[in-house]
Amino acid sequence: MKPITVEVTRGDLVESTHQVHVAVATPGGLEIWGDGDRLTFPRSAAKLMQALPLVESGAADRLGLADVQLALACASHGGETRHATEVGRWLDGLNLSESHLECGLHWPMHEPSGRQMSAQGETLCQLHNNCSGKHAGFLSLAQDQGWDTQGYIQREHPVQAAIEQCIEEVLETPVGPAGIDGCGIPTYANRLSDLALGLYRLAQATGVRGKAVQRLADAHRREPYLIGGTDRCCTAINGELRDGMVKYGAEAVYFGLFPKAKIGIALKVEDGTVRACEVAMVAMLKQFGLLPEDALPQWHCQPLKNRAGALVGQVRVSG
After folding, report:
1. Contacts of 106 by beta carbon, 8 Å cutoff, 6+ apart
2. Domain spanning 4-68+134-317: which superfamily?
């Protein structure tokens, strides 16, 4: 089938369009809209896979990690006060500090929090990085396993080696071309169809892996604010779901896995536009009965407003 088109209207005209490639794996097979062979870096959409070694190894249990920490391990959070505070508390429990993180600095993704910090003269640190929770998870695994806590972002480090092995098991194919993600760790491009099939396998996993997937998916739904934050689509969706989880990744990628429904979804917007992947993901979830038809109207059809707050158009799936 053709790619899904997300259109942006202004008045009665379509002003812009975005092409969306989607692969959905179900017990009935693989459904593709667009190019299922498209090599796609999952970016932060893959964070549940990256957190699996932390849970499957038993490290999460030995360290007493709860939903708060497991949600943060999968988060692309807004760098709001609670996000930074909880990651700092997690590191304190490991007898580590913000200086042990290797994710780098950036202002909070939640712009009001960044403006408040600047106005109050607060010091920016790595706790505000949207991936700080994931990196706390990497440090937790390294410490539990007796591995060096320095250099854990390098591909040859045991933490990243364990993640790469896990991804290959899930996808049942070697990882594709490697790049470096925004937070410094390796990211691998694989076919969109293989990513959807991998999510489908995770949705059906049993034994140790199945329990780990369920635990991480539950953390997404129980602590959705920690996954994203204020006014974030990812948080809104996970807060509405009764099964599984979804996760956004940079450059307009979205993943979802749903154990009860036995569905895996991988979505990529060709031009990397965030608003298009949000609208498209909500539409796909409704199409497959994973969200009620009347859920999240502000994300299914996003209002487009001018500087004065007047409604001037919308972002919606074409047709």
Report:
1. 128, 129, 130
2. DD-peptidase/beta-lactamase superfamily (3.40.710.10)
